[in-house]
Amino acid sequence: MELQGIRRKIFYVSFFELFAIAISTAGLAYFSDSSVGRASVAAVVSSVIAVIWNLIYNTVFERWEARQVVRGRSWKRRMAHAAGFEAGLILTLVPFFAWWLSISLWQAFVLDVGLIVFFLIYTFAFSWVFDRLFGLPASAR
Length: 141
Known about the structure:
about 140 residues; mainly alpha; globular
C-alpha cells in the first residue's frame, strides 16, 4: 500500500506516537520502578509536551533564522537547533518525571537521556520500516 501527502503524514505521526508511547511506558515503568499506570501517564504527557515544544521551538528558531545574514542550514546550525530542542525537553521533562514518578532529579535526568538515545534509534528504525511498508514519499523519489 502506498501512502502520499497528508494521509501519509497522519498515518506516520499516529503510528509513531502510538508505538512510542507503548514502548516508553514499558521503559519508564521498568527504569523508575513505577506502576504501568503512572508510567503511561508520564509517556503520554511527555509525548504531548514534545509535540507542543516542537511547534513552539521551531517557530521561534525559524524567526531567529530568518533574521540571520548567513542563509542555509550548516551542520553547525543544525547541531545548535537539535541541541536547543533537546535542552528544552530536558528542562521540561526532568522535573516532571521526578515529580510524577517520585524519583530524584538525577534519576529523572538519566531517564530522560535514555529516552533521547532511544528516540534517536527508534526514529531511524520506525522511518525505515514505515518507508518499506508504505513506500517512499514523493519528495524522496
